[in-house]
């Protein structure tokens, strides 16, 4: 698949580094911000990928939330993969499985992703709490526990 050429996409990739052991906050959106994951079976299929050991390899998913049209992941990168390779594998697998549920042949995710490498002094637990509170802030639920598509090891 050819890489998008618009300036925003290139800006996302400029300066991106993969540092083993570092924690990254990742945001990725669905193609055209379509709320694919309002469809419960598609959300279930995608969510299963986020904690699959064979996809993560030696990286660790510290927290995640799957919203109707985007996802946030807090990942501690392992030694085996670059950040881009890991995210591409997560997106590809979740897209394939969710697409089977919705009958969508083309990819579900938009190209690219936004990453923020956390500094040592940043509070991982605070970032994890911010991630899982996303459905609450979006008005989808009244309590975080009422939302089905999140998990965190740091709460």
Automatic annotation (TrEMBL):
Gene3D superfamilies: Transposase IS200-like. Coiled coil: none annotated. GO terms for molecular function: sequence-specific DNA binding; transposase activity. GO terms for biological process: DNA transposition. It comes from the Bacteria. SMART domains: Y1_Tnp. This is REP element-mobilizing transposase RayT.
């Amino acid at each position: 698949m050819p890489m998008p050429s618009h300036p925003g996409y290139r800006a996302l990739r400029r300066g991106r580094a993969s540092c083993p052991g570092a924690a990254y906050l990742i945001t990725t959106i669905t193609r055209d911000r379509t709320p694919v994951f309002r469809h419960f079976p598609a959300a279930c299929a995608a969510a299963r990928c986020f904690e699959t050991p064979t996809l993560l390899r030696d990286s660790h998913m510290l927290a995640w939330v799957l919203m109707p049209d985007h996802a946030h992941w807090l990942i501690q990168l392992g030694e085996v993969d670059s950040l881009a390779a890991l995210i591409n594998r997560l997106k590809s697998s979740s897209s394939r499985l969710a697409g089977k549920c919705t009958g969508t042949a083309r990819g579900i995710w938009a190209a690219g992703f936004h990453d923020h490498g956390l500094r040592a002094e940043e509070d991982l637990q605070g970032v994890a709490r911010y991630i899982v509170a996303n459905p609450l802030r979006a008005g989808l639920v009244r309590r975080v526990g009422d939302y089905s598509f999140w998990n965190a090891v740091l709460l």
